[in-house]
Every structure is written in C-alpha cells, then in structure tokens.
C-alpha cells in the first residue's frame, strides 16, 4: 500500500481504519495474499488494528483452504452439471 500514511491520517486510529483493513484484507483467498498482508503489517503495525488484522487473516486462510478444497475436488464439475440440468 503506497498510501498507507495517507490512510492512517485520513482514518485515524478508530473504527474507520479497522473497518478499512477488514474490508480490504478479508476477501483475499490465497495463502500468498495472507503472507503479503502479514509482511506488510510487520513493518506498518498499528496496535488499534491488531485484533481486526488477526481476524481478517484468519478469514483469508479460511477462504484459501476453501479454494484449495474446491480445486482438489475431482467430481465437482460432474456434480454441478448434474444439479444444473436436474428437473424439479
């Protein structure tokens, strides 16, 4: 994040910065993204977002595990086709 200092000045150390971090980090879905976020905040730490950051990284890891399990599911395509063409 090239504009981290600007974001800190804009959002301060309250609810808005924690919301921002959660909204930006939580949707990621790869272990590589989680590592990048961890590396960034290792040098840009803010105590007021520590809990939100942990929770957001936990969500990223959950998402990454889900993506990995879907990618490893060999019969998923067949199941989707069967459900898509099923007549109710």
UniProtKB/TrEMBL annotation:
InterPro entries: ERAP1-like_C_dom. It comes from the Eukaryota. Residues 2-61 form the ERAP1-like C-terminal domain. It holds the Pfam family ERAP1_C. This is ERAP1-like C-terminal domain-containing protein. It comes from Glycine max (Soybean).
